[in-house]
Amino acid sequence: MIRFLPRWGAVLVAMSTIVLSAPVAVSAEPTGATVTWAVQPADARGPDGRRWIEHTLDPGTVLTEHLAVRNFGDAPVVFALQAADGYLTDKGRFNMLTSGQESVDGGTWITLPETVTVGAKQTTVVPFTITVPPDATPGDHPAGVAATVTSAGGTVAVQSRVGFRVMLRASGTVTAAVAVGDLSVRYERSWNPFSPGDVHLTFTAQNNGNVAATGDGSVRVGELFGLAGRSAATDVPELLPGDGRQVEAHVGGIWGLGRLTTTVEVTPTVVSGDPGGADIRPTTITVTAWALPWPQLVLGVLVGTLLLGWRTISRRRRRKLARLLEQARAEGRESVRVAD
User: Fold this and answer.
1) Are 118 and 188 in contact (CB under 8 A)?
2) Helix (H, G, I), strand (E, B), or coil: what is residue 297?
3) The domain containing residue 29 runs over which residues?
4) Of 113, 143, 170, at which residue does a domain stop?
5) Which of 108, 137, 170 is the last residue of a domain?
6) Would I find Membrane among this entry's keywords (predicted)?
7) Which of 56, 183, 303, 318 is deepest in the core (most CB within 10 A)?
């Protein structure tokens, strides 16, 4: 069974281990002459327009694919060919292991010639074989292929490579599971007592499934024992099986009136392939934090102090007025008595 999968990253291009996300040509100077080349998926006749190769294969399947190496330089070049396991960098960009790192997964399924010689201004199509182990576990096994040139100038050799993704999925039960952990909540108040604050949170998203997945997440912060609350959406970036990444989110409009109950829920989505029949496993995590409404408390104390002062002054004025009235009455009575 072979199916093309619609969504994966773009062609990878690396200078040493730097990866780009679109097909480009890379230049290097292995022997003093500038070499510019590109690598693309192909069929037996030449580049076929694909940006990467993706297949869903049954265990034990053997498949022949092709790559095209294009030499834009003015002299023939010998390129080293490499297949290796693929991974995502911390910034979410696809890359493949370097020649000094051992592949243990999809990179070992690919067999291709060690080198290829491409004439000046020429394109050479290179067939390679994908062999799925009979005991391959269901799910994604990302890999990449690249053509490499090593620069000999200076005291440090620099390996420049150009390649693309080869995304391989072994058929079987597809499980999309993104676990959420290490939830940390921080309340950032506004010192304006008439303006609410924000809740900032971070959590770790871990792909515990067997296929690449993203996550549609929601965050809810409840206060006043659940009588009030606000919600916000958050997204988990693409994660390959076994990958983990820290995710940040924030929820505005929170007054911080005591206990804050923060709940994060993530529903994974299969990045590519047919999600029909996939085992989708949502995850929910809840933590409780406390926040005191200091601006409102300060405002309340000030208002209370002003009211108490106003009441005290009013009482004193009333008492003084009463004394003056009583004094006036007494003087009036005394004047009447003297007249009599």
Assistant:
1) no
2) helix
3) 13-170
4) 170
5) 170
6) yes
7) 56
